Amino acid sequence: MNQSLLPRAQAxxxxxxxxxxxxxxxxxAVAPLGAQTTAPTAPENEVVVLSPFTxxxxxxxxxxxxxxxxxxxxxxxxxDTASSISVITRxxxxxxxxxxxxxxxxxxAGVQEGRGIQFQDRMIIRGFETQNGARTVDNFLQSAxxxxxxxxxxxxxxxxxxxxxxxxxxxxxxxxxxxxxxxPSFRPSRTLTLQLGQxxxxxxxxxxxxxxxxxxxxxxxxxxxxQDTRTYWSSSAKNKxxxxxxxxxxxxxxxxxxxxxxxxxxxxxxxxxxxxxxxATKSGTVDPKLAPGFGYNGLNGTQTWSAVKTDSLDLFxxxxxxxxxxxxxxxxxxxxRYNSDSDQEFVNGLPGLNNRYNPYTGExxxxxxxxxTNTSLAHNATTNPxxxxxxxxxxxxxxxxxxxxxxxxxxxxxxxxxAVLTHQLGVVSSQTVVGFGYSRQQxxxxxxxxxxxxxxxxxxxxxxxxxxxxxxxxAHNGNAYTNMQxxxxxxxxxxxxxxxxxxxxxxxxxxxxxxSWNVNxxxxxxxxVLDDGKNLWNLSALYKVRDNVSLYASxxxxxxxxxxxxxxxxxxxxxxxIGFKTEFAGGKLSLNGAYFQIAQTNVTVPNPAxxxxxxxxxxxxxxxxxxxxxxxxxxxxxxxxxxxxxxxHLKMRDALGRMVRGVADNNASTxxxxxxxxxxxxxxxxxxxxSYSGKRAGDAPINYTVLNVTGKTFFFLKAHAVDxxxxxxxxxxxxxxxxxxxxxxxRKNYLAVAGGVFWGTGLTTATGRNIRFxxxxxx
Length: 779
Fold this sequence. Notes:
The protein is mostly beta strands. The chain is about 0% helix and about 50% strand.
């Protein structure tokens, strides 16, 4: 029997993790953290017990980890896990020096860029956007807050694809991003990293840790970072990010360990430049252009004060203990306080689109309106047809805008406890994981909208103005939820663990509610309440054809509560997946593939019309289906060369058979890293990467025209590729110098992301070349 497959505590030598980067110049408030999931390093030659609830600091290769915890919150080899989980190592993060999480997850099969790239760590996994609560940090779900997770506190990232009712029952249907944070170390380590660059740079990070006063039972870590940088679009439009994270680990005994982490972070994120699609665009255009007068790398009249400011504070406590060789327990808690203070400029008063669709063809004609020849009579194709009237979509000298202030506060409490029991029942191995989770959140938002602003005149794009806001609130809303989850996951191993059969059952109970107050009387309006429960389950089978080759099939049912447009709903669905996994070169290289089908009801996405018209419904609700396949090669192909190569193909369509906005059918990526281990170039590492995204729908059309003709997509984004090159030189284990060049060939002046015809819907232009230089000092 292969003992390494049993998720119980195992004695092993723990090696120190690779040096990490970045700085602490500010102690402003908050970002996320959670229950410890990476084992703290120990002094060399010391044997420690590794909890089944943690993953080792060791990796099979710089670009490949051999195990993950994102299936059922228990460590398991990826080869033996009947689901698609991709792991991004800290070495890969260091090589790419990312400004946001997607800069590294773009190299994961099935992951592509989401709309609104500046905040919320948005991305698309298997066709579903991850906003509205798909990000977990150390196993704790974080709601759709506007902040991004600071790179400086990340140890590794696990992307769990497909619905995961245990890890993230309220996550997006396509999958979840589980961010594993750094942990205290028993080996002294001190690094200071400084980064300079053209944009999205100017960052410093301090990372220090080790035993407290030479103790063998107490270790600490302190990570801090501060960034004050310009955006691509303007030197006066800034992004400012700060984080500080003190951590402590108490090794109570060889079997019991307690870790506490406090993470405070603060962000100021520039909203986005003003952009409008050229009204002369023909329906179905690929590679659309901006309207005349709009620049691809300017603010186009957007005010530099338009920003989202957030601060958060997270406290995480985690206790793991091994009762005996068969039973281990984890108890973890998280308290989070999140605040945002946004002062933003939005487009205002652009014409609605419904009467600009050709009733006969379903095509959007942005500079024309359609109406009956005689509006008092019914339509008659011969005597009273619909006719088009030229009517400009906007005036370049007077584009209406408004200001909006929104204050948001949320307080969240989370509790989790898990137990894993392993047994050998004759020739059958058994692993039982049981767990309970409780989470409670209450939040409020207050709004002043609209703030009066002069219209944008594209001939004077740098004119400064600040809104005149109403004296009183225009909206005051509240929301709250109390969720409880209890689950059991049973895995049985047969034929010396060549065959694994797994089944899980989770009970999800929720009381989710939202309400508002009448801003004139202060009286609360009736609440929208979902007080209900669902039984969710999963089944899987995995067969190891050889020691290094697995075949698997799985089926999972998921559901999460949502309140969309004041209506309580369950977003529910199912996924079927079959796939294979392989390992070569002693586990240093893997090749995996999967085919999946996902069907989801009540999928909610922000309504693009909401940015222009505050009275429009806040959410679009639809049923979606997706199927596709993906391949992923990851790890070491030689002693010097590591590689990641991925390809995914989707067929994501809405109920009317149209492409879903922002989702490409075809995506691919390649990342190579070559390390010189001897000779004159010893200490030098070169890396190069490219990620490709195919054609994507740029807008969400109406369902039907007044003549019941299906609305057509107005424009598509052309297929494009994003490249990065890097060189790292390590000198005497003390100094590290790194050069990163993103978009070396300076591809720009095209639309990279879109969700509608005007800004505020995710419309974003491609950034040009960015050169960054980083220096790290170890002492």
